[in-house]
Amino acid sequence: MSEADVDADVTVEFGEDGLVPAIAQDAEDGEVLMLAYVSPEALERTRETGEAHYYSRSREELWHKGGSSGHTQTVEEIRVDCDADTLLYLVDQSVGACHTGHRSCFHRTIDGEHVGERVFDPDEVY
């Protein structure tokens, strides 16, 4: 591996709102689980703890994925795209990623067809 292949930490380009999108993908099977936003503090917490932290735009606060449900994401690797303005979290997902009870937030097609697996009852969790 050459020196050019080993860079210092990449400078993430947080947007004007101070956030960057992050895709959570299952590290084992590659399934896309969710998309959320990350603030500098959320990224720092994720790197410190090894568990995914995001920024809730609706609640305007930092959140630990699984903090209330117990359905955490252990982050195995963080990748950054070529423009350094999108993150990819390769995760080990505990139970489901979606608050609707599905393994993935991408559980339906644009035509409304249900294609995802429901893995828990949100009424029992939240």
Q: Which structural class fits the helix and strand makeup?
A: mainly beta
The quaternary structure here is single chain
The geometry reads as globular
Mean pLDDT: 94
Helices, by number, come to 2
Content of β-strand? 25-35%
* Number of DSSP E strands: 6
The gyration radius over C-alpha positions equals 15 Å
What is the spatial order of strands in the main beta sheet?
A: 2-1-6-5
Order of secondary-structure elements: EEHEEEEH
The stretches of 5 or more residues where confidence is low (pLDDT under 50) are none
| Alpha carbon gap, first and last residue | 48 Å
Keywords:
cytoplasm; zinc; 6 strands; PRib_AMP_CycHydrolase_dom; 2 helices; globular; mainly beta; two-stranded antiparallel ribbon; 11% helix; phosphoribosyl-AMP cyclohydrolase activity; hydrolase
Please write out the topology.
Elements: E1 20-26, E2 32-38, H1 40-49, E3 53-56, E4 61-64, E5 73-80, E6 87-93, H2 122-125
Parallel strand pairs: 1-6
Antiparallel strand pairs: 1-2, 3-4, 5-6
